[in-house]
Amino acid sequence: MSELLLPPEHRYAKIIQELHNEDGSELSILNLGPTHPATHGIFQNILLMDGEKILEAEPTIGYIHRAFEKIAENRPFYQITPLTDRMNYCSSPINNMGWWMTMEKLLDIEVPKRAQYLRVIAMELARITDHIICNSILGVDTGAYTGFLYVFQFREKVYEIYEEICGARLTTNMGRLGGFERDWSPKAFELLEVFLKDFPVAWKEFENLFERNRIFIDRTVNVGPITAEMAMAYGFTGPNLRAAGVDYDVRVAHPYSSYEDFEFIVPVGKSGDTYDRFCVRNAEVWESLSIIRQALDKMPEGNVFHADVPEYYLPPKEDVYTDMESLIYHFKIVMGEIPVPVAEIYHAVEGGNGELGFYLVTDGSRTPYRLHFRRPCFIYYQAYPEMIKGAMLSDAIVILSSLNVIAGELDA
Amino acid sequence: MSLETTEIQDKLVETFGENVFHFNQEKDIFSFEVTADKITAIVLFLKNDPTLRFHFLTDICGVHYPDNAIERQFVVVYHMHNWYENKRIKIKAFINGETPDIKTISTIFPSANWMERETWDFYGINFIGHPQLKRILNMDEMISFPMRKEFPLEDGGRTDKDDRFFGRTQSNR
């Protein structure tokens, strides 16, 4: 039977032949994935199982690898944002902003305070949508569909705000070098106010549905726990690390885009199990809402939305037709002829599920010499086989969704 | 920030002498080069030294410099982070272009396992002592290493698309 599923030279086939349980039952092999609705993405795990207990797992990834790093070496700098969109597509604005900030660090561009605050709002909205998806899907995987339906419409509300800001919804390609492509419309702020009024009610309701729910607690407490030491050794960052009790947050450790102006706490868990990961994400949503509120209150007057860097920032189209300088800058920027120093930059932002890093090597030409994305998913997913060892099959699904592994980011 | 870069430099030079060199501050990251065959010892030292405490491996990646001299054609870049003092460092180890071999650090940091596999997958850099050095994102049957500079992004025979003025091409750098 097992030869049909696995080549006979696979080490699991050997284990099955050699090991026999006392009651005469055999070990078995199960393919979890590559495409299965419960894995929320395309990754395969070959599981060696004893009844319903997982003895070992062998992950295979790379099913949606799109060679972004190679493509990035052949594209002008401003054409790389659309690539970052497609990594963690649940929170694309964070990726976009992370990339622009890397470029701004390279070029020493000072972004005006107002644009920085607008970016903070966009990034925190993205974090909220990311956590909405992760936590509500975790609910669905444990059999609670209702919470998902309650909060998922608010993702749509956030997408409407994105639409007002940049015109796109999922893969946003938001912002430009030095700020935004246009000022936020009054409608965007209006929608934001409505969101800030309605969403907390729904999120509170969502929390109430889950946090003290007997079934949910039984399914998640002590499922897939990871100690702080293990989590750090496996390169965990983001909510998954904080659930294990380590308060490392890039927003606090290396504040970017004026995060130092806002007051927020970094929620931490204790045991690093699925329930803690769920709670940390819940708490982070509240912090994000508070940051958005603070950013709106502290927002400087005026309508500045980008840095004054004509060499890098596209001029308004009407000027291109009437003004010689603008025409020249427009041409140079579109053709990728922007002056770029020879340098090596590492910039990290706190993405939806961890430290999203950009390692950029330039050689002064129109494209990056090398661009490496530090994708948090890719690094912590290697702990997954370790985490599901000894767990039930149904737990493996719950652990996977609580880790918030996004296939697009995993494979890049 | 109490951990000064001079302290890191002094400690490293004291312990490893000429195997660590080219110290410089690149923007916000303190950076230096090491000789490739000492990488394991240096990473272990950085991790375990009671004052340095670079206990977190942020990232590993490779870079290919085909125009360099043969013994400096590949570089493996390690980013490490000390969360106690909030200090990042970058370590570069240049290796030979024909036999790109370097020792693994996955014995020190389990997280290096997949990062090294990824680097092997894309650059063909051989991490000696790695427990499972095989392809990770590309398919197992692949024989080339796609992130090397000589590997073309697209089929060179394409005529329907002229990207000469955009992006990087052979004639336009």
TrEMBL record, chain A:
UniProt cross-references to Gene3D superfamilies, sorted A to Z: Cytochrome-c3 Hydrogenase, chain B (1.10.645.10)
Reaction(s) this enzyme catalyzes, per UniProt: a quinone + NADH + 5 H(+)(in) = a quinol + NAD(+) + 4 H(+)(out)
Domain NADH-quinone oxidoreductase subunit D positions: 141-411
The keyword Transport is assigned to this record: yes
A GO MF label: quinone binding
Pfam family, one: Complex1_49kDa
Positions of transmembrane segments: none
Top-rank lineage group of the source organism: Bacteria
Presence of the UniProt keyword Oxidoreductase in the record: yes
Membrane topology summary: Peripheral membrane protein
UniProt-listed Enzyme Commission number(s): 7.1.1.-
Keywords from the named record: Cell membrane, Membrane, NAD, Oxidoreductase, Quinone, Translocase, Transport
Location of the protein in the cell: Cell membrane
InterPro entries found in the cross-reference section: NADH_Q_OxRdtase_suD, NADH_UbQ_OxRdtase_49kDa_CS, NDH1_su_D/H, NiFe-Hase_large
Gene Ontology CC annotations of this record: plasma membrane
Family of the protein in this entry: Belongs to the complex I 49 kDa subunit family.
Record note on quaternary structure: NDH-1 is composed of 14 different subunits. Subunits NuoB, C, D, E, F, and G constitute the peripheral sector of the complex.
Function comment: NDH-1 shuttles electrons from NADH, via FMN and iron-sulfur (Fe-S) centers, to quinones in the respiratory chain. The immediate electron acceptor for the enzyme in this species is believed to be a menaquinone. Couples the redox reaction to proton translocation (for every two electrons transferred, four hydrogen ions are translocated across the cytoplasmic membrane), and thus conserves the redox energy in a proton gradient.
Name of the protein: NADH-quinone oxidoreductase subunit D
Organism per entry: Flavobacterium franklandianum
TrEMBL record, chain B:
EC number: 7.1.1.-
Organism: Flavobacterium franklandianum
Its membrane topology: Peripheral membrane protein
Highest taxon of the lineage: Bacteria
GO cellular component terms, A-Z: plasma membrane
One Pfam family named in its UniProt record: Complex1_30kDa
Record InterPro entries: NADH_DH_suC (IPR010218), NADH_quin_OxRdtase_su_C/D-like (IPR037232), NADH_UbQ_OxRdtase_30kDa_su (IPR001268), NADH_UbQ_OxRdtase_CS (IPR020396)
Keyword line: Cell membrane, Membrane, NAD, Quinone, Translocase, Transport
Subcellular location: Cell membrane
UniProt family annotation: Belongs to the complex I 30 kDa subunit family.
Region annotated Disordered, chain positions: 154-173
Transmembrane segment boundaries: none
Enzymatic class: translocase
Protein name as annotated: NADH-quinone oxidoreductase subunit C
Function: NDH-1 shuttles electrons from NADH, via FMN and iron-sulfur (Fe-S) centers, to quinones in the respiratory chain. The immediate electron acceptor for the enzyme in this species is believed to be a menaquinone. Couples the redox reaction to proton translocation (for every two electrons transferred, four hydrogen ions are translocated across the cytoplasmic membrane), and thus conserves the redox energy in a proton gradient.
Domain NADH:ubiquinone oxidoreductase 30kDa subunit: 33-154
Record's subunit section: NDH-1 is composed of 14 different subunits. Subunits NuoB, C, D, E, F, and G constitute the peripheral sector of the complex.
GO molecular function annotation: NADH dehydrogenase (quinone) (non-electrogenic) activity; NADH dehydrogenase (ubiquinone) activity; quinone binding
Compositional bias (Basic and acidic residues): 154-166
Reactions catalysed according to its record: a quinone + NADH + 5 H(+)(in) = a quinol + NAD(+) + 4 H(+)(out)
PANTHER family (UniProt xref): NADH DEHYDROGENASE [UBIQUINONE] IRON-SULFUR PROTEIN 3, MITOCHONDRIAL, NADH DEHYDROGENASE UBIQUINONE IRON-SULFUR PROTEIN 3
